[in-house]
Write a structure and sequence with these properties.
about 140 residues; mainly alpha; two-stranded antiparallel ribbon; about 45% helix
């Protein structure tokens, strides 16, 4: 039982360890106390990622990204899939992607017609993620 009302620190710690272990960290590293020779959670977050995304003027961009850029590229890719699946309107897509910050210096593609066309003609193997959670392996 914690001394702070409303916060169960034991549960917060258990969730942190579970998240870290799911990412391939040891229990010690996941809790923020990496042993000598182990990769810490912050080092894992700093590792570069290769993640494709649709960028202006209408091309598939494959670049080495920081964790923050990879998160932004993932969000852009989710919007692309939601447009393809009909879950959002072209206007909503244009508004949300148009407001996104550049990813690796490239503005995300906000034109719904171009995005749909590129999603149709781009082979699935071109949508490959390489990063710390994939163990350095290619994952589609």
């Amino acid at each position: 039982m914690s001394d702070t009302p409303g916060r169960d620190f034991r549960l917060i710690y258990q969730r942190r360890v579970a998240r870290g272990e799911a990412r391939g960290l040891s229990r010690a590293a996941a809790s923020g106390h990496a042993r000598e020779g182990e990769v810490s959670a912050s080092e894992l977050d700093a590792a570069p990622r290769t993640l494709p995304f649709l960028g202006e003027p209408g091309v598939l961009i494959v670049a080495e990204l920081t964790a923050r850029e990879a998160s932004r590229a993932s969000r852009a890719n989710r919007l692309d899939r939601r447009l393809r699946d009909g879950d959002i309107s072209p206007g909503e897509f244009r508004r949300r992607k148009g407001n996104m910050a550049p990813i690796a210096g490239v503005k995300p593609l906000a034109d719904p017609e171009k995005a749909l066309a590129l999603l149709i003609v781009t082979p699935p193997e071109d949508w490959t993620y390489v990063g710390p959670s994939s163990g350095g392996m290619r994952r589609t």
